[in-house]
Amino acid sequence: MVHGRISAVKVRDVRFPTSLGGHGSDAMHTDPDYSAAYVIIETDAEDGLKGCGLTFTLGKGTEVVVCAVNALAHHLLHKDLRDIVGNFRSFYRQLTSDGQLRWIGPEKGVVHLATAAVLNAVWDLWAKQEGKPLWKLLVDMDPKALLSCIDFRYITDVLTEEEAYEILQKGQAGNKEREQQMLTCGYPAYTTSCAWLGYSDDTLKQLCAEALKDGWTRFKVKVGADLQDDVRRCRLVRDVIGPNNTLMLDANQRWEVPEAVEWMLKLAEFKPLWIEEPTSPDDILGHATIAKALVPLGIGVATGEQCHNRVIFKQLLQAKALQFLQIDSCRLGSVNENLSVLLMAKKFGIPVCPHAGGVGLCELVQHLILFDYISVSASLQNRMCEYVEHLHEHFKYPVIIKKASYMPPMDAGYSTEMKEESVKKYQYPEGEVWKKLLAAQRN
Prior knowledge:
By secondary structure, this protein is of the alpha/beta class. Strands 5-6-7-8-9 form a five-stranded parallel β-sheet, covered by helices on one side. The chain has a four-stranded mixed β-sheet with strand order 10-4-12-11, with helices on both faces. Strand 7, helix 12 and strand 8 form a beta-alpha-beta unit.
């Protein structure tokens, strides 16, 4: 039973110096230090359980998200957890409609990342108190109770609460079998770990060959900085993985709209399934233009990891601007807002292929995509979840990958809890790792 009054909201700036090895490098983000604003919620309940949540950042600016979390904290302090989750829609709206803070949003940017971190911690605590992994909490929830967590404001023109209820009702048919299938086989994944833009050709070849041996059949390559370089790297990867395995490309918002079409005409020979984030994530009509132009080539458009909110997703779907929808567990307003996007994607018949990687994104998003398959989409066609092989060792309940699939997590919670020693070691700037690095920079 959900219980406990929230007695503390703590937040830590945790950064990993991934830029030193070129990990995570792409055409727009050349030197990311994978980081997180990491939130811990404590209550006065005797069970001593804590809710852990985070949002993902790239180093500089994490301190700004930490400030935003602290600015939101008063909405949680001294509230009873039962009252929050019992009227979750109202609490979500309270956080996102703070009369002063919404001016630096609304529902976008730093304040929305902070909202995600805080609400991810609430969901983690709720699932822990129920003794279930988050995906199972969602799957077992009564459809009406689930819908009461979602704010339908601004999306009722494409999805009413009644339509969403119908989708969930239909999703109950065969859900026990799908749950068993997931427990046995897991959810299909693809790897981005082999082909960061900062990797040498030798590293790229070696990592692709190793991934093939480990059973991976779906590979994503970062592109967008230099056309000849992209052609060479795509040829290299295609040669290693062979003609029958799946290749995806990701430009990380690098191109102008006409440039994206021209560039993809040159890369079409490598038979990519999709081009991801070809242009500005805010350019809905630009994505639609690119998507339409690439139809004859059999290449889809994928986007979503930097989509501000459900309204942008609504418009991307209305404009037929994407063929693959990529939710992010820490960019949107936590589970609440992601649920609304999963339901819209189902209505429009667009497959969801979540963005993951970073710090903890794999750990979190696996829960959402398991729920999507078991209770919403009921399909694995053209669906897969991103996997990146970095930083899992810092989590108390790291993802488990078997045969290139996510195995459903069985520990209670949202898999968000980091190891205390990792938090201490990598806290910025006072953790021992950063003390050494910053001292070396000064010298």
